[in-house]
Amino acid sequence: MILVCGEALIDFFSTGKGERALAMEGHVGGSPFNVAVGAARLGREVAFFGALSDDFFGKRLRRALEEEGVSLSFAKRTGRPSPLSFVSVGEDGLVAYSFRNEGAADHDLLETDLPDPGDAVSCVSVGSYTLGLDSAGETVTRLAERMGRERVVSFDPNVRPGLIGDDAAWRARFERVIRAASIVKISTEDIGHAFGPGADVEAIARGWLRQGPALVLVTDGPQPVRAFGAFGSVRFQGPAVTVVDTVGAGDSFHAALLSFIEAEGRMTRGALETLDLAFIERALAFACRAAAITCSRRGADLPRSGDMARPA
């Protein structure tokens, strides 16, 4: 089982309709939510650990996860309102987000809420903007540290600078999760936010390999993915696609990568430390194809197994 931890929210997109009124259309989303749905759609057993509101939006998020087959046995119910995100899409399909989450459900994860998933969980996926929230960020970090001793922890920072309250606390958590993780999936944009423009991506990735992770993957939009591990390093170019928008593309890549590794029976720390080049190229091909399919659709509509089986 893959246990996905973090926020779930509603993304609002402008529909372009109306003259004086601003018409918006809401979609269930949030990076961890998307990863959970994406892995479930690819046939994996998945559970979600996050706080879901009892309000209208929270009930919709809960129903969507259940309909996708994601277990909510570790999810928390809360009376706080659901977080909201307003999404603008540029002509090139790239997106920008504006969040409304002060005092929202995404903050309401406490140490007392930490799950004890037993032996069923092979991988814990953590990250996204939850890491920047005071109580929830510490809770998720402690879960990563606890689970990382025996299970695979996969970390996608998905940095949102506007949601980081205490930069020093966020950076300390970031480093703690890096040390606990077996897999780090990060974008060049995230590296820029965390380490500044022009940061040496390869030096950073290789530095993380010395701290604990066995596999580091750096995505860069339509540019080749860079992967670092026991196999050395490799660049892999994903398929060309007509981009509708890039919402959920990174989440789709992450979900597909974890799904592939688990389906191949390699979801252990020891197995990740011995991955060869042939395996990582097959994994990257699968993950890049999933991300490309998502980019060809409106919003975070991640592929199912049947979509992946069709000719490219």
UniProtKB/TrEMBL annotation:
Which PROSITE patterns does the record match to this protein?
PFKB_KINASES_2
InterPro entries referenced in this protein's UniProt entry, alphabetically = Carboh/pur_kinase_PfkB_CS (IPR002173), PfkB_Carbo_kinase (IPR050306), PfkB_dom (IPR011611), Ribokinase-like (IPR029056)
One GO molecular-function annotation for this sequence? kinase activity
Q: What is the top EC class of this enzyme, as a single word?
A: transferase
Q: Where is the Carbohydrate kinase PfkB domain?
A: 2-302
* Xref: Pfam families: PfkB
Family to which this protein belongs: Belongs to the carbohydrate kinase PfkB family.
This protein's name: Carbohydrate kinase
